[in-house]
Design brief:
The protein has 676 residues and is of the alpha/beta class. It is built from 28 helices and 19 strands. The strands form four sheets. The protein has an eight-stranded mixed β-sheet, with helices on both faces. Strand 2, helix 1 (28-43) and strand 3 form a beta-alpha-beta unit. The structure holds 3-hydroxybutanoyl-coenzyme A. It is found in: Peroxisome. Keywords: Fatty acid metabolism, Isomerase, Lipid degradation, Lipid metabolism, Lyase, Multifunctional enzyme, NAD, Oxidoreductase, Peroxisome.
């Protein structure tokens, strides 16, 4: 097998080049090649300095994550980077693309770093539930100080080369197109400079205030996660007077702990699951895509406006249609307000706001959609209304235009059937707020054409969404799984639990909020029959009293002016009344029962969805819950979590509370296999 590493001589400079596509991950072959090349450079008396660079789109993007579950192969990355640093001839890292994780650590161990202005550096291991385990936590604070080391390691932020240059992390910026030549010239300048600057020999000043402030500022973000704290502890170790060797031994120990833990396994699972989700089993990757130059959006409400922003932000012009001028003005006004709020936070330039708004064409004329390549209907959930819209669209849309519905529950096939082109019809289920939430459920109808599906999946990537293919089923993947949770949560209230108890169990699990906090945010009146005299469950009773959630300052909780929730005595009464009316004597509900009835039932529904072929793979279900509903990523999504919880335990829990476990779940539990 040929090595991914080759060397080229430029007189006294040895250039070591990696070519391991697509991202130059530091696989065993790459590490072995680098080790051999460095040894060659050190041994050859005519070599005076070495440059390490990569072919293709990026400098090393990290350790090869696929190797993490395999037996280790020498040289291990920490050994290799120490060997690079120990070289008695200067080594220079020449960076383009993204120097991430182990790649960044190769750069930190090199004696000098030169980067093109478009390059980025970072140690995103924390996003995989890990820490930079090849000296990164020890060298970063020594080179760039505690503050930046914390941002990079514990948050996993990437920084642009220019900022890295200012912070002393990069010694020199190269020309965008002349990296190799500039690196060789730099190597010639420093080839004789002594002492050779070695990061491990530097001393990093402790900064306890910065550490305390960092922990406080990020407490919410880090809640439940193990890796950020381990990263912080390692950075602190680099500054507490310990030697480099002691610090790196500590780093190694912490790295191995995280690596063996379930959180990192979950986060690595999601890394690959997210990438896998974009692949459609029976649609070839090279399917010819349809060109999308202009998008039409029907409905300028919260959803329509949010959906439009995704395309505008990606530079794709949008025609947005409403029935009334007032609604149109309100909708476009909200889009502008949202952009201006982003600009006020410094995350957008004023000219970018104007460019996005300039690409938005508001209109009352439905026929203006004729020029759009993709038209997304985002009106309220009513089959008759949607059918009427698609009948009209069929008449005016140009041939080949993709016709999408943003329905969250309804049957795409029934909608497609009113058109003469069901192959062009697809579901695009955005999650609210649509300009923020990463998930897009792409609903594949019975007749949706493969190229329509492939085009929408590719477009999702362009607008920075994580797209998952779902089949036609009520509520698709996410909302269908939400249903048993909501039903059981409400039943538990009747039987004796309180909203606070159920929400507490969910928040402790890692959810951003519990089912009742979510109801209050979304609106208790959603889906309500609007007849105050008809009270069939606790939700009806709340809705009948105008307790519609945060918007009416009362729902399952009471809210003050600042929307701070407090437990509601009135809700306790309503629940009591309803229990009395239903003849239910309340009982103590153990937390474990809440978990089984509101979370195991979701897993069960996920298994049924998979059995019915409405999701392609278990990991897709996980991606839906991570990106659409805030399921804690360190638990890897419901299907991964069930697996780590133990499928026999899940099956047992379901049966204990009277549910019928899905066949696939039972089979996998019995055989010790996985849900696929
Ligand atoms: N190891 C193995 N495979 C990797 C990989 C890695 N570190 N990084 C990316 N890949 C694979 C992806 O799975 C994908 O495979 P596929 O085509 O079969 O689906 C392919 O490379 C291309 O990746 P993307 O689709 O993500 O390409 P993008 O251009 O969108 O993004 C990237 C490129 C920014 C480099 C992104 O892939 C990324 O963030 N990679 C992970 C970086 C990372 O986490 N590095 C740290 C690794 S852990 C480590 O280094 C431990 C050390 O400290 C000891």
């Amino acid at each position: 097998m040929t090595s991914p590493i080759r060397t080229e001589r430029h007189d006294e400079i040895l250039v070591i080049i990696s070519d391991n596509q697509p991202v130059n991950a530091l696989s065993a072959a790459v590490r072995q090649g680098l080790e051999a090349a460095i040894k060659e450079g050190v041994a050859d008396a005519s070599v005076e300095a070495m440059v390490i660079r990569c072919d293709g789109r990026t400098f090393f993007a990290g350790a090869d994550i696929t190797e993490f579950t395999k037996p280790p192969v020498d040289p291990l990355l920490p050994t290799l980077v120490d060997m690079i640093e120990a070289s008695d001839k200067p080594v220079l890292a020449a960076i383009h693309g993204t120097a991430l994780g182990g790649g960044c650590e190769v750069a930190l161990a090199s004696h000098y770093r030169i980067a093109v202005p478009s390059a980025k550096l970072g140690t995103p291991e924390v996003k995989l539930g890990l820490l930079p385990g090849a000296g990164g936590t020890q060298r970063l604070p020594r080179i760039a100080g505690v503050k930046l080391a914390l941002e990079l390691t514990a948050k996993g932020d990437q920084i642009p080369a220019k900022k890295a240059h200012e912070a002393g992390l990069v010694d020199r910026l190269a020309g965008e197109d002349s990296l190799e030549a500039d690196a060789i010239a730099f190597a010639r300048e420093i080839k004789a400079a002594r002492p050779i600057p070695r990061a491990s020999e530097k001393v990093a000043a402790a900064d306890p205030d910065a550490v305390a402030a960092f922990k406080k500022d990020n407490a919410r973000r880090f809640r439940g996660f193990e890796a950020p704290l381990a990263n912080i502890a390692c950075v602190e170790k680099a500054t507490d007077g310990s030697s480099y060797a002691e610090g790196s031994a500590f780093e190694r120990q912490e790295f191995m702990k995280l690596m063996m833990g379930v959180q990192s396994a979950a986060q690595r699972h999601i890394f690959f699951a997210e990438r896998q989700a974009s692949k459609i089993d029976d649609v070839p990757a090279d399917t010819q895509l349809r060109e999308i130059k202009r998008v039409g959006v029907i409905g300028a409400g919260t959803m329509g406006g949010g959906i439009s922003m995704n395309f505008l932000s990606a530079g794709i012009p949008v025609t947005i249609v409403e029935m009334q001028q007032e609604a149109l003005d309100r909708g476009t006004g909200t889009v502008r307000k949202n952009y201006e709020a982003t600009a006020a936070k410094g995350r957008m330039k004023p000219e970018q706001v104007e460019a996005a708004m300039g690409a938005l064409t508001p209109t009352l004329n439905f026929d203006d959609l004729a020029e759009c390549d993709l038209i997304i209907e985002a009106v309220y959930e009513n089959m008759d209304v949607k059918k009427e819209i698609f009948t009209r669209l069929d008449k005016i849309a140009k041939p080949g235009a993709i016709l999408a519905s943003n329905t969250s529950y309804l049957d795409i096939d029934e909608i497609a059937a009113v058109t003469s082109r069901p192959g062009d019809v697809v579901g695009m289920h955005f999650f609210s707020p649509a300009n923020v939430m990463k998930l897009l459920e792409v609903v594949r109808g019975a007749k949706t054409a493969p190229d329509v599906l492939a085009t929408v999946m590719a477009l999702a990537k362009r607008i920075k969404k994580v797209a998952v293919v779902a089949g036609v089923t009520y509520g698709f993947i996410g909302n269908r799984m939400l249903m048993p949770r909501q039903v059981e949560a409400t039943k538990l209230l009747l039987e004796g639990a309180t909203p606070e108890q159920i929400d507490r169990v969910h928040v402790a699990f890692g959810m951003p909020m519990g089912p009742f906090q979510m109801s209050d945010l979304a609106g208790v009146d959603i889906g309500w029959h609007r007849d105050p005299s008809r009270i069939e469950n606790i939700r009806d009773a709340l809705a009948a009293e105008n307790r519609w959630g945060q918007k009416t300052k009362a729902g399952f909780y009471d809210y003050d002016e600042k929307r701070t929730p407090s437990n509601s005595p009135r809700v306790a009464e309503i629940i009591e009344d309803f229990r009395a009316k239903s003849g239910v004597t309340p009982r103590e509900i153990p937390d474990e029962e809440i978990v089984a009835r509101t979370l195991y039932t979701m897993v069960n529904e996920g298994a049924l969805i998979l059995e019915e072929g409405k999701a392609q793979r278990a990991s897709d279900v996980d991606v839906v819950w991570i990106y659409g509903y805030g399921w804690p990523v360190y638990r890897g999504g419901p299907m991964f979590w069930a697996q780590s919880e133990g499928l026999p335990k899940v099956v047992e829990g379901l049966e204990k509370y009277g549910f019928t476990p899905a066949k696939s779940l039972k089979d996998a539990a019995a055989s010790g296999g996985r849900i696929k």
